Amino acid sequence: MDDRELLTVVMGIVGKEKCLDDCAEVPCGDQIMVVTTDMLHRTTDFVEGMSDWQIGWMSAAVTLSDIASMGAEPKYLLIAVGLDTWQNLAGVMQGAQDCCTKFGAAIIGGDIDRHGELTVVTTGLGLVDKHHLVRRTGAQPGDLVCITGIPGQAQARLDGYVQYEKALFEPQPRVKEGQHLGRVGASAMMDDSDGIALSLYDLVSVNECGFSLDSTKLPVPAGIPANQARELALYGGGDYELIFTLPPQRHPIDGISYTVIGSTISEKVVVIDGRPVEKRGYQHLWE
Amino acid sequence: MDDRELLTVVMGIVGKEKCLDDCAEVPCGDQIMVVTTDMLHRTTDFVEGMSDWQIGWMSAAVTLSDIASMGAEPKYLLIAVGLDTWQNLAGVMQGAQDCCTKFGAAIIGGDIDRHGELTVVTTGLGLVDKHHLVRRTGAQPGDLVCITGIPGQAQARLDGYVQYEKALFEPQPRVKEGQHLGRVGASAMMDDSDGIALSLYDLVSVNECGFSLDSTKLPVPAGIPANQARELALYGGGDYELIFTLPPQRHPIDGISYTVIGSTISEKVVVIDGRPVEKRGYQHLWE
User: Fold this and answer.
1) Which of A265, B125, B145, B210 has its CA 20 to 30 A from that of A83?
2) Which of A34, A101, A113, A283 to mutate to test the interface with B (most CBs of B within 10 A)?
3) Quick check: B159 and B232 in contact, CB under 8 A?
4) In the predicted model, what is the mean pLDDT of chain A?
């Protein structure tokens, strides 16, 4: 049993349509409010060596990234902190606050709890004009497949490349890019926090098309042997880049940096250089 | 160090005004959206003997209660579940779903995580007309002090009175009552989840008045010796009644059941029969 299989249990209770996107959508005046929640905790998510400030930063960043991936503007964050020792609180809160401030959001509420393991749950609220909202659905055959930044850097640090520590410990959500992509008409979008491969399989599962990547176009972390670098970029977790599809007539987009790594195809598969991409990446496994 | 002292650490970082009410407020069209998040987990909150379904129910109920205490209508719930074993998931989700359905809300999103200890974080969103919003502030000298239901029942179960198990395991948030009280002009309101005593001290800290209770008017759980029953009602935790102040000309209110237990006074104290109420109730203590 993995996370995605477990999600089908939830779909059976709350409805499949509630489980398809990075955020839920609710009407808010003449805009859409997007809402998302993420649980992180010491054993699974906070790597040895992270400071309290970085733990707070990351906790906010992952949620702001979900908002960015809908094309929305992050506005508000709630943070529930379960603490094994109260001395962590100030650092965690300051990190979350600084991340919110950098990306234009504000902490408006939260909860504090005593807990056996440091656990942080952030809930983010963002706003977007309904015409600029981007969902996971919407990709069309012939669209370009694109990604912001250089994927694989967070996993590189996990695999021992210490020069990539900042990518793992202080992820930078693509807030400006997400909104820009919404305004110019990206057709589908999500963040690649579980890796490019799993993200594309998630997109295949909700779209009527597949994805064909070109390995020569895939940006990879520098200073790492080519084969390993490509492995990190395709299958590594912990990045918060945006992976999106774009009608070819919208390309190139001024004002943001991204790379075209392939195109959508009519067959519902994920391939690179014509060969299947493995369906693996960052997932919890359940006994 | 207790919860309320720890909150001052947070106030220093995010601002005191973010920490005063049961919910945060954000503008939403011509209404106010109230938002709140609560972390519950096995060791501290889920009592031995609770079913997975009851754990899910309680997790939703505590958050719906916060929304009710602002006079708002609960609309949406997000639920992040940290599981030590995936077999708990369906029961927890069904309990949360059933609680939401009963009180008019819908689960719209969430997160699933593997965790050493069953941990559930619910975030609730509600809507209220700005003229019907009720905050913790707003109590005036001369107002009546009132409470819904019979306080002390959840604590009675914790103290061994098994006939009160349902009060502890399946709390019923006062959703209808909260909205009704907002419409008819309650001046201040919160829920009494940490007990009446601590709730009134919370209200004293943000209002320019105090509270004088009359012990003969205090409803207490039946079937328990009088002294103990009063102790449970004043200091017991785990209830989700609404404690509110009401301008006397608004009393009585048709359509909901509540008890007048005292009145506000100009001095910033909490007394019962003229003697100080102790400042104690349900709180975590931190080393």
Assistant:
1) B125
2) A113
3) yes
4) 95
